[in-house]
Amino acid sequence: MKWRCDGFYTLMRDDECVLFLQWALPKLGADWRGFRKVRGQVCKRVARRLKSLGLPDVSAYRGYLETHVDEWTLLDELCWIPISRFYRDRAVFDYLQRTLLPQLAEAARLKGAQQVRAWSAGCAAGEEPYTLNLLWRLSVQRQFPDVELRILATDIDPQQLDRAHSACFSRGSLKELPKEWIEIAFDENDGRYSLRPGYRQAIELRQQDLRSELPDGPFSLIMCRNLAFTYFDQSLQRETAAALRQRLAPGGSLVLGRHEALPAGTSGFKDLEPRSRIYRANACPKEMSPARQLHEEPK
């Protein structure tokens, strides 16, 4: 296969792009294995970049990267994968609705707290945090009217966050939501569905790179699905797992993607719902060594 770019085929074949990604991704702290199924997106972007630079092939791009250090930042952006939709992985959200969110609300109530804090890391265009808010507002809150859910949603991509701020989605993005929820929470106009303002409340959107800065905790719930433990290399996965643990309240829960797992040797967690890749924080771990700036000065 040759990757098509703006009406013509570049000289980059699939096997050439694979070799290029296997060379470049480790230099970005990324794991090639996480990109195998989505490499088509990245390869097309790289092909467009070759065209814009006037380079004949991917070998020339390798040489360009070796002599233009700033180009690595742009290549990193080409590797961002914003795949998301509402209620993605139904079993996870069913468990959150039925079991986990009520448990967290009850724990907050027993402590005399009026708030449950959640963090959606890698929120893309907002589908995950908005789904979480809908679960709370349309189901859990009826049982706990005195407890509020506050959600921080972060993503590296400013364009995705602009979409999240607009809260306007295609019908396909909502296909897994219960029909009655769509009728209650969205306004439809010419095939686009806008989340009503009342269901956007309690969510803060913030641009952050999980590799270089993290928000202050503690959180009762962290959603970090299909991001760090798919695309980061093993070293960065271990550091990220430790950083997430530091930001979880005792007894708080971490939710990963259904094809992900914490890296071997990770401490401070126990399996809560193995089939849905949900972990519960154990007692507070020892202080981490400040291996990276994100662990030294969380934002």
Low-confidence stretches: 285-299
Number of strands: 12
The rounded distance between the terminal residues' Cα atoms is: 44 Å
Helical coverage, percent range: 25-40%
Radius of gyration: 21 Å
Q: What about the largest sheet?
A: 7 strands, mixed
Strand and helix order: EEHHHHHHEHEHEHEEEEHHEEEH
Q: Which strand order do you get reading across the main beta sheet? A: 8-4-3-9-10-12-11
Number of domains: 2
The average pLDDT is: 90
For this structure, the CATH topology of the largest domain is Rossmann fold
Strand content: 15-25%
CATH class of the largest domain: Alpha Beta
Brief sketch in words of this structure:
With 299 residues, the protein is of the alpha/beta class. The protein has helices at 14-24, 32-35, 39-53, 58-67, 71-78, 90-110, 127-138, 158-166, 179-185, 228-231, 234-246, 293-296; strands at residues 2-5, 8-13, 115-121, 148-155, 168-170, 186-189, 192-195, 203-207, 219-223, 248-255, 269-273, 278-281. The protein has twelve helices and twelve strands.
